[in-house]
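Re: [help] complex structure
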Amino acid sequence: MKWMIDETRIILEQLASEAKESGREQAQYETKVREILWEIETRGQEALKEYSEKFDKFKGDTFLVSKEEIKAATKRVETEVMDALKQAKRNIVSFHEQQKQEAFIDSGREGVLRGQLILPLEAVGVYVPGGTAAYPSSVLMNVLPAKIAGVKKIVMVTPPSETGIPDVILAAANIAGVDEIYQVGGAQAIAALAYGTTCVPKVDKIVGPGNIYVASAKKLVFGHVAIDMIAGPSEIGVIADDSANPVFIAADLLSQAEHDERARTFLVTDSIELAKKVEQEVEKQLVTLPRKKIAEKSLADFGKLIVVKNLEEAFNVMNALAPEHLEIQLPEPLSYLPKITNAGSVFLGSYASEPVGDYIAGANHVLPTSGTSRFYSPLGVYDFIKRTQFTYYSKKALEEDRQAIQILARKEGLEAHARAVEVRFEEDNK
Amino acid sequence: MKWMIDETRIILEQLASEAKESGREQAQYETKVREILWEIETRGQEALKEYSEKFDKFKGDTFLVSKEEIKAATKRVETEVMDALKQAKRNIVSFHEQQKQEAFIDSGREGVLRGQLILPLEAVGVYVPGGTAAYPSSVLMNVLPAKIAGVKKIVMVTPPSETGIPDVILAAANIAGVDEIYQVGGAQAIAALAYGTTCVPKVDKIVGPGNIYVASAKKLVFGHVAIDMIAGPSEIGVIADDSANPVFIAADLLSQAEHDERARTFLVTDSIELAKKVEQEVEKQLVTLPRKKIAEKSLADFGKLIVVKNLEEAFNVMNALAPEHLEIQLPEPLSYLPKITNAGSVFLGSYASEPVGDYIAGANHVLPTSGTSRFYSPLGVYDFIKRTQFTYYSKKALEEDRQAIQILARKEGLEAHARAVEVRFEEDNK
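Output below.
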C-alpha cells in the first residue's frame, strides 16, 4: 500500500490529479459496439443469433431458459445456500420497502388540483455477468427493488457457457422472482433488450454490471432506454483512530482488494501507529488468501494509507474520495453520520464489516463507484419507478391566472401559447 | 396534419416503425465535441477562452456576470413580468416542496440499525440556451427544484451575445436564487462545468436544454458528472371525444407546434367529426400566428389525427406514444388517471390548457420527450439529491448472521469476505 502523510490540502491535490489520469478508455470500443447495436436494431433475432454463435459459441434454438431447467437447477443447490439466500431476501425486502414513494395530490386553491403519480416501469432487463463474476447475491440486489417497485416483467440475461448457467444463479433468479431468463451476453444482449427481437423482449430500463463491451453498449443505448449507473472498480474507505482494531481493518481492506486488481482501498486515520499496524496485518493475512494474487496487485496499485492531523481532516479527505463503501471504525460511530457528505453505503462500528452489507444486512450492494457517490445513489426502488404529473384547472381558476400566463408567453414570443388561453374566454367559442 | 384511421394494432405498428427512423444522428457531432471536452479537461481556462472567442466571438476578461449587472438588468424588466414570474415561482415552490424525501432509520432487530440519508448535491450547473430559445420560465423550472433540494451552489451558464444576456433571463435567475452566472455556451460550457476551470467551477450535475453540441457534450460527460435527460423535440397528445371543443384543442396543438419545426402533435379520438373540426380550426387559427411558418411545418411533418374505435383504444395508442404533455379533454377527466401509464405531465379537462403548465400551475415543464416518459420522470427535487445508506451491527447481531454471510461468500469464491467476519470472533484478535 502507498503511504500519504501530508497536509490535507496537498493530499487532496494529489488524489485529484490521480483521478484525472484514470477512467478514459471507452471510446475505442464504441465503434465495434455501435455496429453490433445497429445490426440487432435492424436485423433483430437473426443478427442476435450470429453474434451469440460468433462470440459465445452458442448453438441452441432458443435463448430462453425453460421453467423446468430453472426448477431443476434450484433443486441442485445446497439447502444451506438456499436458506442463506432466503434470509438475505427477507432483509433486502424489509429495507427496500421503506423506499417506496407516495403519490401526492394538492388542492390548495379552489378550482385547482395538482399532483404526481408514482408508476412502476413496465419491463426491466437485468444483466448478470458470466463466469466467476456471476454472483447470486447481486441477482437478489438487482431484481428485488424492481419487484418491490411493481415492475411487471423482469427479464434476466446472462452469457451462455459450455457448462451452462450456474445453478445458484438460476436459483437466486427464482427466489427473487425473475419472469424470464435468456442465455445471451455481451453488447448483443444489451442491444436485444434495448430494441427487442422476436425472442428477447424490449425493456424500458437495463441494470446490472458487465465487462467493457456491456458498459459501452449501455452507454450507447442510454436515452433510448434508461440504464443504471456505469459501474467502475469497487472501493472501500475506512476512517479509524487509534482505538480501532487493525486486524479487523486489514481483513475488511482485503475483502475489497480480492474483488478485482483495480479495486481501491483507503485507510484514512489520525494515527500513524494504527496505519503501520494495519499495513503489517494486511501483509500477514494476505499470505493464505486463495485470491492472494488479485488482492496483492490491487493493494500495490490502488491501496492507500493516508495519515492526517485529526478526524475533521479525515472526513474532508474521505468526502473528496466519495467512496462506494465507507467504514467508520471510531467510538460512537453513529455520531459521525452528519459529517458524511459523499458515500454510497456506510458501515458503522467494529462489527459492521463491509461483507455484512454485501450479503445480509439488506441495504443494497449495487453502489456508485469511482467517486460518483457525489451525485449517484445506491440502486433502489426509486430506480424502477417514474413519475407522472397532473394538473386540473376550472374555468374560474384559469380566469384568475389568465393574465400572468399571457404576459409570460408573450414575453417569450410564444403567441400561440397566449391564444390557447384566450380562445377559452371568447364568446364565439362556447 | 396526417390522418390515421385504422385498427389500433396497425396504428401502433406504424407509429413504432416511424419512431425507429427518427432520432439517430448524434454520432457525427461526437468527434468534434470530444476534442473540445479533451482540450478543456487538459488545458482548462485557456482552452475555454479560445473556444468562446472562436465560436461566440467572446472577448471579455471574465465569464462571470457581476452582481451589479444582474441587479441592473432586473430593474429594467417590466413590473408585470416580474410579478408574473414571482407568481410562477410561488406555485412552482409549493408544488415541488411536496417532492421532498425523508431519510429513514429502521431498528427492527436488536443490535441492528439500517437507514438511508437524503443529501443534496453540492453544486449544480444549469444550461440556458441563447437567442430566442432563452426562456425565463425554464430558468425557474430548472433552478427552483435544485434550490428546494438544498443544493448549495447553483451555477448558470448561457451563451454570450453582442446584445448581452436578455434582462429577463438575468431577472429570472435572480428570482430563482442562482448563485453564479457565466457567459459561456455550447459544448465548451458543458466541459467547463464537468471538469472545472480557474473561472468556472466544477459541478456534480448538469441540467438544462441546448442544441445538438450541448446535448452531445452532456452525453459524453455522463458518468463523470450526472446529467438530466437528453431533451428531444417537444410533444403534445390530446385524447378527446365528441363533447370536446375543437377550438380549444386546435389552439393547444398550435401552442405546441409553434415551438419547433420538429415538435409533434397528436389528437387521438373516437370521433371522426371532432377530428375534422379540429383540422379545420387548426388551419383557421394558424393564419394569424406570428410563428406560422414553424407551426405549419411542424404540423405537416409531425402532426397526426388518429381516429380509433373507442376510448379504451385511444388510451392504448396514447400510452404507446408516451407523450411529454397529455391533455384529457373528456367529461369527468380525473376518472381517467388510472388509465395513463406513460406521460410526462397530464392536463385534465377543457380549461387545463397546456400553457397553464408551461407557466403558472407549478408542476415542472422540463419533461421527458420522444416517448421517454416510459422510463423518465419530470424534472424534480429528486433529481438534485442523492442517497447514502448506513448499517450498524452489534457483535451479537453479527454472530447471528455470521454463518449466512460466510456460506454466501464462500459460494461466490470470495474467501476474504468470509474471513472479514471470522477474524472478529477469533480469541487472538481482541
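Chain B has a mean pLDDT of 94.
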